[in-house]
Amino acid sequence: MPEMLIIKPSALRDIVHGLQVAASIKAQRPEWRISWIVRDIFSPLVRSCTAVDQVYVFRRHEGARGFLTTMREVRKKEFDLVLDFQGLLRTGLMTKWARGKRKVGRADAREGAGMFYGEKIPLPAAGRAAHVLDILLQFCTTVGAEPRLAGPLRFRELERLNLSFMEPRKGQRPVLIFPDSGQSNKKWNGYAQLTAQLIREGGRKVVWAGNNYLPCKEAFPDGTFLNLTGNTSLTSLPALLGKADWVISNDSGPMHLAAAMGLKTIGLFGPTDPRQYGPYPLKSPTNYVIQAPVGDLHLLSAKEVFYLFNRIEASLHKAQAKAALAHA
Asked: Are residues 134 and 175 both part of a single domain?
């Protein structure tokens, strides 16, 4: 069985895209055994993905000692193929230290990482303007696979995981909202107002989730709102997403994970270009983008987002009904 090592330690969005590439390779070339180097904080997600067979945990906070500890473990095995998805100096050095017959990296690698590759994957036709996942998908060609997705991401089921709070209300599954973002200019501040409209006007149940605690000062009827911000783990994130009817999020890792799982996803975008960073694939009937005027999320009102949400949901229901009639 040929052995592959993927190097992609961070961040969450990039890891999700990398997992989609790994799943595509696995679907088209199931004979490959895939190992992965990932930072400790993201390792639960990678470990639970069905496309990954082995995980090497990199503890970046330990500095040089953490790097050397990880690479000593990695060097115990020789790989047929080493792929550097990240393309930075640290991952270039990991590529150099790994024992591999072929070492392949990005054509757009930075910080001198390119000097450690025996081969470089060319950019897609759109070049650096291509969607970031389209750039990564070019790595599929290293094993003779096509640079395309091969279905949604799948994750191993967890035992003893209680998600009873995600039970439907009045026959509808909850709307799951991720109100936070790692960058302030990508963070929309209208989620409390949107939540109020979804509950009071739309009759929906809403759940907030995310790493960092964000308060919601609105008061809602019992059973209509739950705030899990600050209490959401990567271990349970795929299962949590899978219980939602819709996922609404800023441009963030959870948004990309929801899209990768084939879930109904709405991304709110400010300064970043959804053509490069939007939920992928961009033309999927379950992926939608709401772009703020002139890229400024302060100019995007909750009233407008609620209106567009209702339009999107009605349009999707209409398309699904039409498809059902066509197959009847």
From this structure: no
